[in-house]
Write a structure and sequence with these properties.
Cofactor: heme b
Oligomer: single chain
Keywords: Heme, Iron, Lyase, Metal-binding, Oxidoreductase, Peroxidase, Signal
Shape: globular
Main location: other
Distance between the termini: 38 Å
Number of helices: 10
Structural class: alpha+beta
Number of strands: 11
Catalytic activity: heme b + 2 H(+) = protoporphyrin IX + Fe(2+)
Number of domains: 1
Order of helices and strands: EEHEHEHEHEHEHHHEEEHEH
Largest sheet: 5 strands, antiparallel
Protein name: Deferrochelatase
Radius of gyration: 22 Å
């Protein structure tokens, strides 16, 4: 979880956001001129320089609000973009009697709504007005299909072999009611109201075709909150994501996306998402000394550097020993076990959210990680790494896997298409 789980935080740019009209002729962006705002100046490194009160006249969106992701493209949004400050994960089951036709109509509605909201527009109908003062705020909406979807729609022959259920792991304590699902939706944005607005709009769009199976809420550090772009921290305080694959890597597409000529054909340029709700046993973790925490992870807490020396990006020396002859990076350290070169080259793009769902009567926080990882084939990505972690990861004593899901996420929709059209109308 810790060594690769969180992608390096990115500082959003200031792209021009298209202003288009909703059904009533008023766009979400057009309302900005009447809603007092605050101007945020960002330094070149992405740190907040200062805040200044602004008049209620037409005020430009800050860089956070104006960031925009594209709905149409080779891949769906929400996979390669940087971490987002707010996220919602929701799984739906098709309603009794709903089949392929109803599923196609639902994906058509969802795609149309996602495209509008990601462009900074109001929802197509019955817009709640929750996000009317905001720009797109880098909103992304991603859709996937679970194992059961194919049986319910009569498309069993199109179910990918890679979507076979994940094996059982000895450390699992899974709640079936919060696992799996026919349809999966990932929502991410850099503004909490924009993210909630999308969640509510898509829930309403589901209508009688599908019902919510489970829903989870997450967060990350807000872009611009640090003086410079840097790897994010998780709720254990660890820098989390140092060795995450990067789009610039020569083999990135090969590891993360299904090839254009891959099988089944409708999954071309798609990916597989493993979703795990991992509770962190923070009371136990925080009782450890700093040295003990670093031994569990295999990296320094302050800067993410390997215990073998150097800085965060220095290659870990797994053979280095101390004066007593003990490995500097312990054999059961999380960072050692998760290294791709120790797992047959297995790699995943991890893009999670932290979560906090309250404090129990005994004072124990229900908090941890909504782990999301992307790979071309989970049998070569997530499964071998998790099996190895299951056999002796020092971090296992301080975390608990409480929910799980695996979803086939097709490639991006071309202009005029909806997500999943090649499956549902092929």
């Amino acid at each position: 979880m810790a060594d690769q789980s969180i992608q390096e935080a990115r500082t959003p740019g200031v792209p021009t956001t298209r202003s288009s009209s909703d059904a009533s002729g008023i766009s979400r962006r057009a309302l900005l001129g009447t809603a007092g705002a605050t101007g945020l100046a960002l330094g070149a490194a992405g740190g907040a320089v200062g805040y200044a009160a602004a008049p209620a006249s037409a005020t430009p969106l800050t860089s956070v609000g104006s960031g925009r992701a594209m709905f149409h493209g080779k891949h769906q949004p929400g996979i390669t973009e940087g971490l987002q400050a707010r996220g919602h994960l929701v799984a739906f089951d098709l309603a009794p009697g709903a089949g392929r036709r109803e599923a196609a109509a639902l994906l058509r509605r969802w795609s149309a709504t996602a495209e509008r909201l990601m462009a900074g527009e109001a929802a197509g109908h019955d817009d709640t007005g929750v996000a009317q003062d905001a720009g797109p705020s880098s909103l992304t909406v991603t859709f996937g299909f679970g194992y059961g979807f194919f049986g319910r729609t009569g498309l069993e022959k199109q179910r990918p072999a890679a979507l076979d259920p994940l094996p059982d792991f000895s450390s699992d304590r899974l709640d079936k009611a919060r696992s799996d699902g026919d349809l999966w939706v990932q929502i991410g944005a850099d503004d909490a109201l924009v993210a909630f607005h999308a969640l509510r709009a898509l829930q309403k769009d589901a209508g009688s075709a599908a019902r919510v199976r489970w829903q989870m809420n997450g967060f990350n550090r807000t872009p611009g909150a640090t003086a410079r772009p840097m790897t994010a921290r998780n709720l254990m305080g660890q820098l989390d994501g140092t060795r995450n694959p990067k789009p610039a890597d020569a083999d990135f597409d090969q590891r993360i996306f299904v090839p254009a000529a891959g099988e089944p054909a409708w999954m071309a340029n798609g990916s597989y998402a493993v979703v795990r709700r991992i509770r962190m046993l923070l009371d136990d973790w925080e009782q450890l000394s700093l040295t003990a925490q670093e031994q569990v992870i295999g990296r320094r807490k302050a800067d993410g550097a390997p215990l073998s020396g150097g800085d965060e990006t220095t290659e870990m020396d797994l053979d280095k020993a101390d004066a007593k002859g003990d490995y500097v990076v312990p054999l059961n350290a999380h960072a050692r076990i998760t290294r791709p070169d120790r797992n047959g080259g297995a790699a995943m793009l991890r893009r999670p959210f932290s979560y906090h769902d309250g404090i129990g009567a005994d004072g124990t926080p229900d908090a941890g990680l909504l782990f999301i990882c992307w790979q071309a084939d989970p049998l070569r990505g997530f499964v071998p790494v998790q099996r190895k972690l299951d056999r002796g990861d020092a971090l296992s004593a301080y975390i608990r896997h409480e929910a799980s899901g695996l979803f086939a996420v097709p490639g991006g929709a071309a202009k005029g298409e909806y997500v999943g059209q090649r499956l549902l109308e092929g």
